[in-house]
Fold:
Amino acid sequence: MKRRGLFARTRVRRLPRAWRRPLAVVGVVVALAWVVIALAAPVLAPHDPLAQELPRLAPPGPGHWLGTDQLGRDILSRVMYGARVSIPLTLLLVVLSVLIGGLLGACAGYFGRWVDETIMRLADLVFAFPTVILAMVVAAALGASLGNAVLAVLVVAWPAYARVTRGLVLGVREREYVLSGRLLGFSAWRSLRVDVLPNVTGPILVLATLDIGTALLLLSGLSFLGLGARPPSPEWGAMVAAGVDVFDSWWVATFPGLAILTVVLAFNFLGDTLRDALDPRTARAIKERAL
Structure:
């Protein structure tokens, strides 16, 4: 037992100091907990999330620990199944935003000239509109559905990655190792893929982690406004919207709202920690404070 404890402590000490801070631990634990809930919801949920078999608007208690909604559905089960909807769609949205915005921004920064002008003016056009308003307009034009809500948020999310990637590529493309590769006959695409992109992925990864919370809020906000998930889908934003109609029954909207809050905070903590771990100056400052 002592050897196991010593081995565990040794492994923990090998972690970067940024990942041993309390907020980092909380972020990792909460994020992993929600991933487990999303994967194991069919096993963990006490009731069918769509079954209308319980008393209506019953407060939290035995048999329905988070209460029931106005149709007699178990809120705990719906929150668990809602994780299977909200979290994967949010992660998919962020991944697509990184791929599209990162690729366009890399091309703009590396090739310059008319490519840069075209992509950046398109990004400026999106930035000219308030993010939420533009997402609402796109979702309303496409029709209310979760897929269209994801597409609407994607339209407003990619320019941020394009602008950040462009700025990073502009700072890297004139480095000696990039110029040496071009002199050796590397094609532009090979140089961009091999020499440039690996050196700009750190800040983009940090931005993506921090943006997961924003994407979840936008996606839930569209569902709250009736432009995303449609009944009876157990999606967190739609569940909060359903609680507005029965405001006296506080549990209907509170627990889905807390689910959104915990996921947003967890990924914000993870993003801050990842930024500190990847920034040598910040990591060195953390180490000096710990000594």
About this structure: Confidence is low (pLDDT under 50) at residues 282-291. DSSP finds twelve helices and no strands in the chain. The two ends are 29 Å apart (CA to CA). The first helix runs from residue 2 to 14.
